[in-house]
């Protein structure tokens, strides 16, 4: 019982933190203005690890410091999960690095799902919400190519549903691969 609770809490904590780091990198790619509540919250939650890494990895169009921080967080998360499973992490040392990378990919896919669902819900419930322009800016690079493929049916945009399905399939593949490598879920 304690192990299940500890795994749940670790998974929740690290997934949220990893998602914040990946969102920070994503916001830089889409050139989101830094002076909005979402950007401020993400920056404040992640500055403690990203700013020191920026001294090593200067930024450009891609925020390498945030991506490296996400990878480090994933590595710590995987080691903690392995320890909780009662396995010596040194026995799985070569695989740890690949599983940490798969964990970052999993966090990124989950982030895409969350942001897409939030955008779709707000577009139906409150399209005038101040968060809509931010969500649209974040999701546009993923949804615009799908919008070119899918026709609008009676004014209904089906691209978020297609993106959700694609990301869910990718998430199943990544999760299955990680489970096969570690013999437990990440």
TrEMBL record:
One of its GO terms (cellular component) is membrane. It comes from Candidatus Burkholderia verschuerenii. Keywords: Membrane, Transmembrane, Transmembrane helix. This is Integral membrane protein YggT, involved in response to extracytoplasmic stress (Osmotic shock). Coiled coil: none annotated. The chain crosses the membrane at residues 64-84, 96-125, 161-179. The keyword Heme does not apply.
